[in-house]
Amino acid sequence: MPWVEFVSVKRIWPDTLSLELQEEVAIARWGDSAYLNQTGEVIKPMTAAVNQSLPTLKGPTGSQIEVMRQYQKLNQLLSPEGLRLTELDYSKRGSWELTLNDTIHVSAGKVDVFENISRLVTFITTRAEIDLADIASVDLRYSNGFAVKTVEQELSGVAVR
User: Fold this and answer.
1) Residues 24 and 67 grouped into a single domain
2) How far apart are CA 41 and CA 56, in angstroms?
3) Less packed terminus of the chain by CB within 10 Å, N or C?
4) Terminal CA-to-CA distance of the chain, rounded, Å?
5) Beta strands in the chain (DSSP E)
6) What is the CATH number of the domain that holds 143?
7) Rounded-to-integer distance, Cα 96 and Cα 140, Å
8) What angle do the packed helices 64-78 and 113-126 form, to 10 degrees?
């Protein structure tokens, strides 16, 4: 059964059975209809309902263990700083895309992903004037810096010439 991680049945003489059952714990969503446990194994639920509060991880077929390892590594870096990794996408070409706090899209690239994310976290945490709600996306694929796109503010009036 998909949600059972471990089962043990023992006979206790003369007329008793001991049943030990351990349930799988879903750590993240894998695509649209599956879950991943902490080791990166795919768990497919019997119902179509997917817990929307779990982060979404995506990647090519067979890459779920690598994606889970990267998620755990990045989550350890981001969580203490109050940043929540809500989506992690590993492309067929080997590049990583993240979504932080449901709104900030981060292009991390193929190489030095952890170092690039560390640089971003340091930037965000050392500058008190930065409001995360104002950041739309971040591109970390530059070797000597990164680009930040802010949320465009809607204009409230009309200018007439």
Assistant:
1) no
2) 14
3) C
4) 70
5) 4-12, 16-23, 28-30, 34-36, 42-43, 56-58, 85-90, 96-100, 104-109, 135-139, 147-150
6) 3.40.50.11690
7) 10
8) 20
36 contacts 43 by C-beta, under 8 angstroms = yes
Estimate to the nearest angstrom the gap between the alpha carbon of 147 and the chain centroid. Answer: 21
Looking at the fold, whether 86 and 145 belong to one and the same domain comes out as yes
Structural contact between residues 88 and 96, judged by C-beta atoms closer than 8 angstroms: yes
Are 42 and 67 within one domain? no
Q: Does residue 98 belong to any structural domain of this protein?
A: yes
My answer on whether 127 and 71 are in the same domain is yes
pLDDT, tens digit, for every residue of 31-90? Answer: 887 889 888 888 887 665 557 789 999 999 999 999 999 999 999 999 998 899 999 999
Q: What is the pLDDT of residues 103-157, one digit of tens each?
A: 999 999 999 999 999 999 998 888 878 888 888 999 999 988 899 998 876 555 5
